[in-house]
């Protein structure tokens, strides 16, 4: 009897231990370890220079000699976007006139978990700006070429645009530097019988302006603010969807600046 009771007692202890463990494993909820929050690489540049101050007086005098000190500031958001335009008319009376129009726009993208890195968003917008410049209605003799030594990527789009006021020579330089896109629109025309300006000469001036604007962006963010790493991540990152990027509003303003005819006609 003692032996039987001892066996019964051992059997009960063993059963309750294993059964209890199984019950606890089936019914209990194990606290989940906290998952890491989604992260995205921070954008290299955190600010923008004042739009009407991105070019030196010397450069402005070369591009828009009659409007070097009369830049018109466009729609801007501090640190996010900005633009400035200059309109120059050198009236030589019966000998005709030379018209020049310049617009510089800047757009900075911030890294976001839903949209991706600022560099990736800027890379996508850079391509959109080039396509906008290449698709202007009425453009003739359109050409596109890469521009070296300007930001991380730069493209010059040039074409002729015939208007009743004269033949306009349009130059658009689109540049991306880290998470910022700089677009320089520059055009010229000979009015009232004056000869049209040299397209090559205008292109060189537009490229000069783009390089200087890029330098102003870098200076506004401090020396050494940018590194090679963000640019590499930009090329390898998945571009954000159209709905996720701010390109809709930005493209609207950029498209207006990319087409010189309306502003040129109005000013002349």
What does this structure look like?
By secondary structure, the protein is an alpha+beta fold. It has a single domain, classed as Protein Transport Mog1p, Chain A (3-Layer(aba) Sandwich). The chain has seven helices and seven strands. A seven-stranded antiparallel β-sheet has the order 1-2-3-7-6-5-4, with helices on both faces. A hairpin with a 2-residue loop joins strand 5 (153-163) and strand 6. Helix 3 packs across helix 5 and helix 3 (118-134) packs parallel to helix 6. The protein is globular and about 65 Å long.
| CATH class value | Alpha Beta
- The third-level CATH topology is Protein Transport Mog1p, Chain A
Q: Which segments are poorly predicted (pLDDT under 50) over 5 or more consecutive residues?
A: 1-9, 14-24, 223-268
User: Please, how many helices?
Assistant: 7
What structural class do the secondary elements suggest? alpha+beta
Strand content: 25-35%
Helix share bin: 25-40%
Termini Cα gap: 119 Å
Strand order of the largest sheet: 1-2-3-7-6-5-4
Number of domains: 1
Reported for the largest beta sheet, the result is: 7 strands, antiparallel
**CATH structural architecture:** 3-Layer(aba) Sandwich
Report the radius of gyration as a whole number of Å: 31 Å
């Amino acid at each position: 009897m003692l032996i039987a009771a001892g066996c019964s007692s051992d059997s009960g202890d063993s059963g309750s231990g294993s059964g209890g463990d199984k019950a606890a494993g089936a019914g209990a909820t194990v606290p989940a370890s906290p998952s890491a929050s989604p992260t995205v690489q921070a954008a290299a540049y955190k600010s923008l220079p004042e739009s009407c101050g991105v070019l030196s007086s010397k450069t402005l005098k070369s591009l828009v000699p009659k409007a070097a000190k009369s830049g018109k500031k466009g729609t801007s958001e501090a640190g996010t976007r900005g633009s400035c335009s200059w309109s120059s008319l050198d009236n030589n009376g019966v000998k005709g006139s030379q018209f020049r129009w310049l617009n510089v726009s800047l757009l900075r993208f911030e890294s976001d978990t839903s949209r991706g890195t600022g560099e990736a968003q800027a890379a996508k917008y850079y391509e959109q700006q080039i396509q906008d410049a290449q698709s202007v209605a009425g453009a003739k003799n359109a050409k596109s070429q890469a521009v070296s030594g300007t930001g991380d990527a730069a493209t010059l789009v040039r074409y002729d645009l015939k208007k009743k006021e004269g033949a306009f020579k349009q130059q658009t330089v689109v540049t991306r530097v880290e998470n910022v896109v700089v677009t320089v629109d520059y055009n010229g025309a000979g009015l009232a019988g004056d000869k049209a300006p040299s397209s090559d000469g205008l292109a060189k001036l537009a490229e000069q302006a783009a390089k200087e604007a890029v330098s102003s962006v870098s200076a506004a963010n401090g020396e050494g603010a940018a590194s090679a790493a963000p640019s590499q991540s930009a090329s390898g990152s998945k571009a954000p969807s159209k709905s996720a990027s701010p390109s809709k509003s930005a493209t609207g303003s950029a498209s207006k600046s990319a087409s010189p005819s309306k502003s040129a006609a109005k000013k002349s």
